Amino acid sequence: MKKLKLEGILREQQKSFINYTMENLDNYLISEMPTAFGKTITLLALASKLVKKKKIVLVTANNLLARDMYNESLKYEETKDLTSLVLGKDNYVDIDKIKLFDIYYNSKKALAYAKEKIDQDGYLLIEDFIKDMDIVDDNIASFLKYSLRKENGRDIEMGDTAISITNYAYFLSLFLYAKREKDEDGVLTKKLKIDPNDYYFLFDEVHEISNAAEMILSSSFSPFKLYLYTKTLMKDLQDKTFVGSKSLMRELKKYEFKARLVYEELKNENKINEYEISNTGLINKNIFAVKTALIENELIISIQKRLNKYLKKNNLLSARMFLKELREGSLIVHSTDTILYYSKSKGYINFYTYSKDIKFSMALDFWKYLNSFIGVTATAIISENTTGIKSFYSYERLGINLYDIKNKNGDILAKGNLEKCLPIQYFAGILSPSQAKYYITDKDYIEDDNERADWIADEVAKNFNNKNSIVLVGGYQEAELIYEALKNKIEDAAVSIIRAKRAKKATVTLEEFKNKGGIAVLTRNFATGTNLKGELLEKLFIVKLPYPVFTNKKWLDLKSKKAKVYWYEYTNEMIISFRQAIGRLIRDKQDRGDIYILDAKLKKRPENVKQKIKYFLKKVASEFTV
Fold first, then answer.
1. Are the beta carbons of 551 and 502 closer than 8 angstroms?
2. Do 568 and 389 contact (CB within 8 A), yes or no?
3. Average model confidence (pLDDT) across the chain
4. Following DSSP, what letter does each residue of 101-124 receive, concatenated?
5. For residue 167, how many C-alpha atoms fall within 13 Å in the half-sphere facing its CB?
6. Nearest to 545 by CA among 597, 583, 595
């Protein structure tokens, strides 16, 4: 197949971005590019020019986007022989671990599929495996993401090719997890695998850096995963005979029963509202219960001794993974910074440690080493006024320190980067506000949950007009109330009404909506990463502005210490998520649709919040009245 040439397909705005970037390579650059701008092609074209000077690291939000960008690079003459996909071994399926799949599925079928894909492509991403094996249960998907990681063999590394394409989690780990060693002067310094001075760094979806940093600087432990590891271990050992095998199986059976009881108690949905971050009494009670039942007792001590003795002469993967998860659990339940969190998407409890110093760690262990970068996103600008220090919020939220960080003695630990951060540049796209219309309700807020759900269902039913519609709500309980109300309002039985559910993968829900159409009542996490073009989505109802979950420890800590900073950042994060949400409707020049803001609380929000909401709505749509 004949390869395309990037140079011949670029629009003027894409060329303007490349020219602007080439003139400011020694700075921190964030540029905003609206939906349908063609970010991937633009970044690849930029990389093909910069690669003549230095090697390139092109980073995006996750494995699948990185894979898609890599596949895109193979289409063009300028990049087809220069790129490689660099994700780290633990993002690929380990063939030897497929038997873990056998607990609830046919591992022979899974193994045959995995071998075929690896023979064909040379690799198999865990996300693709989960999707192609039709794993609907998010609990199991989470378990597999952790369990199927490849451990052995050399991975493709940064710098093996001229352009390395990767994801933020893997890229940040190269810096944040790098070991410190003493230099010639006896000073501890990071031993990095790459020299940042040898590269240009291109960041797609640059706003996702902060989310990736939060994820990899936090540790988690799930009793559910420990329960599954126990079941897997018992299955592997049931036909093995060795000294003490019967005693070990009896002990594991008792432990599996305990683990199941703990898991069942912690996933009790009647207690969801009790699991607030601020409820330290309940948190400590549950930590103690898990510690005594699963981590610190004579039974588990005996099991550990027997398994360690067995592993001295035998190699059993499930035993090693069981012990590893046990160690992780022990570290977390003994941490003074452990919190308990009910995952509404997964339907069970996690224990995890949240680092209070994420921005500090990013400043000292990451940004300190990067002299420049080029970042693009569709949601960098947070207000109409982008002048002054507030315009640098998009830099600050990434953990970039604008000013010097000093220790108690006044020594500079990390120099400030204010002068490096250039004002955010906006590059116009191909979409027009004439493609969509927006409406904002003037209804007073209804306090009663059921009455409010009934009113929202009325508004959706009245304006639905048999167009495929998404109703974005706050959480699963609200989704259920509106879903039930809608079933009574929509008289046409042929209209499909679906909703997001706990423990059901978002991709499965979206696929169902694509196939059936109708109305999908979805939670706030669907505001990003949803790509439904044309008639697949023509109506978007936003029931609740997408403020972050305020009970998150990050926000509670900030609110208790710096209330003004809290409200500033809390509102800004909502604006970023809101812009991503309204960007779901119009994806290309042919799309048409309507946006309905049905959050009646907006009426009493501060004027600056109302102005921001209207400003960004007007960038993508024209106002109308119902």
1. no
2. no
3. 84
4. GGGTS-HHHHHHHHHHHHHHHS--
5. 21
6. 597
272 has pLDDT over 50: no
| Residue pLDDT, tens place only, 135-158 | 766 666 767 776 777 765 556 678
b/e burial code for range 172-189 (CB count within 10 A of at least 16 → b)? bebbbebeeeeeeeeeee
Q: What is the mean pLDDT of residues 291-318?
A: 89
Residue pair 424/391 in contact (Cβ under 8 Å)? The answer is yes
Please report how the helices 39-50 and 12-22 are oriented relative to each other, as an axis angle in degrees rounded to 10: 40
573 contacts 527 by C-beta, under 8 angstroms: no
Q: Which helix (H) or strand (E) holds 483?
A: helix 476-489
Residue among 552, 606, 540, 607 nearest 579 (CA)? 540
Beginning with the edge strand found earlier in the chain, give each strand of the sheet holding 519-522 in spatial order. 497-499, 519-522, 469-472, 539-542, 593-597, 436-440, 622-623
pLDDT digits (tens, 9 = 90+) for 112-135: 878 888 777 777 777 777 777 777
Element (H, E) at 189: strand 188-190
More confident residue, 37 or 282: 37
What is the distance between the alpha carbons of residues 264 and 89, in angstroms, rounded to a whole number? 33
- In this structure, the number of other CB atoms found within 10 A of the CB of residue 222 comes to 25
Pairing state between β 199-203 and 373-377: parallel
Residue 336, pLDDT score: 63
Q: Structure pTM? A: 0.81
Beta strands 219-221 and 163-167: pairing type? unpaired
Q: In this structure, are strands 622-623 and 593-597 parallel, antiparallel, or unpaired?
A: unpaired
Sign of CA dihedral 236, 239, 241, 244: positive
- What are the tens digits of pLDDT across the range 487-529? 999 988 889 999 998 767 777 888 899 999 999 999 988 877 6
Q: Quick one: which of 378, 375, 528 has its CA closest to 33?
A: 378
User: pLDDT confidence of 485, banded at 50, 70, 90?
Assistant: very high
Count of helix runs (H) and strand runs (E) in the chain: 21, 21
Q: Coil, strand, or helix at residue 131?
A: helix
Q: How many CA atoms lie within 13 A of 521 on its CB side?
A: 27
Strands 348-353 and 219-221: antiparallel
Helix (H) or strand (E) holding 164: strand 163-167
Q: How far apart are CA 542 and CA 378, in angstroms?
A: 19
pLDDT of residue 17: 96
**What is the Cα–Cα distance from 574 to 481, expressed in whole angstroms?**
24
- What integer pLDDT is reported at residue 626 of this predicted model? 66
Task: Specify the DSSP class assigned to residue 295.
Answer: I
| Helix 317-333 with 298-311: angle, nearest 10 deg | 140
Q: How many CA atoms lie within 13 A of 444 on its CB side?
A: 2
Structure-token pair, residue 616: 């960004």
